[in-house]
Amino acid sequence: MNTSGVSQPNLNAASRKNLFRLRDVYRIYGQEPVAVHALDGVSLDIHAGDFMAIIGPSGSGKSTLLGLLGCLDLPTKGSIKVDQTEITDLEDSERSKLRGNSIGFVFQQFHLIPHLTALGNVSTALLYRELTKPEIKERSLAALEMVGLGERHDHRPIEMSGGEQQRVAIARALVTDPLMILADEPTGALDTKTATIVMEIFKNLQSENRAIVLVTHDLEIAEQMDRVVSMRDGKIVADDLRSERTDALEDRFWEAGKGGKLE
Q1: What pLDDT shows up at residue 1?
Q2: Per-residue pLDDT at 111
Q3: For labeling, which of 57, 127, 179, 201 is most exposed (least CB within 10 Å)?
Q4: What is the chain written as a DSSP string?
Q5: Phi-psi region of 204 (alpha: psi -120 to 50; beta: other; left: phi over 0)
């Protein structure tokens, strides 16, 4: 287990493509002496094939790191490369295009458009691609099939359960064939049984060509991931593989309460 505060690539990752590379990244809000160091010198590599969780208690820097990985924000200082492209050098429009091509987002509250069907919601991710309407429909249906909702493509969100809505959101993230699926508390609004189904879908979506990254408070979810990055006080305090882990994740955080969720 690495506890140096800097995330080091594991040996198995050496032969896999580096999709995201953060080096000495800081995100500082406000001015000294009252500045808040939300991220404090974070370095991290995410490789093709990674199936990983980012965990930590409230205030650890998870949400800030999520925003930077999603190209939604820029660091105060440091380097972030997405498939060898330095995002801090890009204009807003260029960064937006890179985000749309490289990252598929899944949110806790689904963010589906109420008046659109499942097919329509998934298709929105392809609206600005140079694709014909038949091509958009074909790709969107294929994505829904991958999450087991092909037969419900014509249903609107109000006609679907929470688990089905989250599966539509996963299909929407998947349809662009991104380098990374970035999920923010994807099971947080679901009951235990439905969360299990959603996690099985994420497991089935593992690919040697993309990374799946979940940001979560739920240690039971994190325990299922192949790689876990643990954060505290804006730093990475551990980055290890499930096969090499020698301690329970709950033991790393005294804030962990009943049910294995970090507060």
Answers
A1: 46
A2: 92
A3: 127
A4: -B-SSSPPPPGGGGGS-EEEEEEEEEEEES-TTS-EEEEEEEEEEEETT-EEEEE--TTSSHHHHHHHHTTSS--SEEEEEETTEEGGGS-HHHHHHHHHHHEEEE-TT----TTS-HHHHHHGGGTTSS--HHHHHHHHHHHHHHTT-GGGTT--GGGS-HHHHHHHHHHHHHTT--SEEEEESTTTTS-HHHHHHHHHHHHHT-BTTBEEEEE-SBHHHHTTSSEEEEEETTEEEEEEEGGG--S-GGGG-TT--TTSB--
A5: alpha
Q: Which of 138, 38, 20 is nearest to 83 (CA)?
A: 20
Q: What is the mean pLDDT of each run of 10 residues along the chain (263 residues)?
A: 46 76 96 91 96 92 94 96 95 94 92 96 92 96 96 96 95 95 92 92 92 93 93 94 78 55 62
Tokens linked to 107: 């949110």
Using the structure block, give the residue that is written with the tokens 């995410």: 46
Tens-place pLDDT, residues 160-203: 999 999 999 999 999 999 999 999 999 988 999 999 999 999 99
How much is the pTM? 0.86
